[in-house]
Amino acid sequence: MNVLVLLRHLLRRHGHALLLLAAANALFAWAITRVVPAASQTAFVRELLDMAPAPVRVLLGEEVVANLSARGFLGFGYVHPFTLLLLGAWAVRVATGALAGEVGKGTMDLIGSRPVSRSSQVAAAAVAVFAGLAAIAAATWAGTAVGLQLRVLEGVSAPDFVPVAAMSLLLFAAFGAIALLVSATRREGGTAVSWCAGILAGSYVLDYLARVWSAIGFLRPLSLFRYYEPQRILREGVTTGDVAVLAVVGAVALAAAFAVFARRDL
Questions:
Q1: Is the pLDDT reported for residue 93 higher than 70?
Q2: pTM for this predicted structure
């Protein structure tokens, strides 16, 4: 049994979920292109935004609030909780199911009785997590691209959103690596899911609160969501610092997952 065999096993378990998550995100991204306000609706939308409380305006982002730009609205779709939830669901589902889930169900004993190394198990889980995230991110971008083909928005083109989709992949690849590390330390899938969901939610809430509450603004760099800002990416491009932070966090967490799982008691 090698990595490819383990990957086929993971595909059988999670393949249908991947199709649903990718299709849902693609449909949502397409829907966002349909609800971007037309020029004739700008004044009405401006009135609504002026009445919105400050925390809501922070959530929407400055490109939406200040400029009412089509790029800003589409960028918000890439950081909308729905989009993030589906990416997070895949990262947590596969990472926790491949290690802690197999241990909890007792099927790890069967896998361990075959000529397969523990490093191969972690490697297969990592490939499945990252490949699935790439598919969902690509589907999200495809939804935007199709939407922009069906509705032309001035000053906006589908290639503008490739860096945004790529950074969403990198962000959740880092979270996926963290989820693998958590899974490598747990004996039950449910416990691992709880920990991973808490880490994801805590990181998102910390980033949001740090933006609306200046007293804790200094804590924002502790959240990985700080390094993924679609509207800023559309305006300024991807920064080397953001890429480096997410890549280093993901690499360290993945290396730790390999080391922990190799030494733990199954």
A1: yes
A2: 0.87
